[in-house]
Amino acid sequence: MKVNYVDIVISAASKKQYPKDPIPEIALAGRSNVGKSSFINKMIQRKNLARTSSKPGKTQTLNFYIINEEFHFVDVPGYGYAKVSKSERAKWGRMMEEYFAEREQLRATALVVDIRHKPTEDDQMMYDYLKHFELPVMVIATKLDKIKKGQRQKQLKTIIQTLEIEDEDNLIPFSAETGEGKDLAWRTMLQYLNG
Ligand code: GTP
Ligand code: MG
Q1: What is the best residue among 33, 42, 44, 152 to mutate for testing ligand 1's pocket, by most ligand atoms within 8 Å of CB?
Q2: What are the φ/ψ torsions at residue 52 (nearest 5 degrees)?
Q3: Do 50 and 63 touch, CB atoms closer than 8 A?
Q4: Domain 6-194 class?
Q5: Whose alpha carbon is nearest atom 5 of ligand 1?
Q6: Which amino acid residue places its CA nearest to atom 13 of ligand 1?
Q7: How many helices (H) and strands (E) does the chain have?
Q8: How confident is the model at residue 60 (pLDDT cuts 50, 70, 90)?
Q9: Rounded distance, CA 185 to CA 171, Å?
Q10: If you average pLDDT over every residue of the chain, what do you get?
Q11: Model pTM?
Q12: With the C-alpha atoms ordered 44, 48, 51, 53, is the resulting torsion angle positive or negative?
């Protein structure tokens, strides 16, 4: 996939700000600081268009990026960060529900998990939540550069078993550092966008 043009369309805090053009979308989901924004940047080869941070909670709104005038990537705030107040958590829940339950042009979600760790209960809940809306899920097992090659299969198996990934979904080992997994992630996304 050749990315010729990318830009941010809007940082949306609520539904009325979402872009109105009916082009297909791929949304991100995953724990705070797991690497959602880094995944987008690597896929579109822009260093920091989707703002990243070593501190959790960087992305706070739904950020819509337009790629080649063809589709949107939607970066979302992460979950599972302990230092978040009850009211902020409720606001996050409403933001997610408003988007995932109603967004018609959403084609698939890339659920980003850390390949080094067993998926958390929050990850399991998120996977089930997306399946409840009958959304295809690509599970992106990121930070692949941080484990030894010999550990890969075992970690991937743990992720499949913990999330109970359904046969029609995809598990893609990925590194935003090295770009490993990028081609497979593009091929998979294009299937959802064109299909
Ligand atoms: P929030 O916006 O807070 O929800 O976080 P996020 O999921 O968007 O995470 P972000 O992309 O900001 O990355 C968090 C940290 O992880 C940053 O310091 C990144 O550089 C690092 N990181 C992300 N992906 C990778 C990866 O594949 N390998 C390595 N080594 N580091 C990564
Ligand atoms: Mg982010």
Answers
A1: 33
A2: -115, 170
A3: yes
A4: alpha beta
A5: 33
A6: 35
A7: 5, 7
A8: confident
A9: 9
A10: 93
A11: 0.96
A12: positive
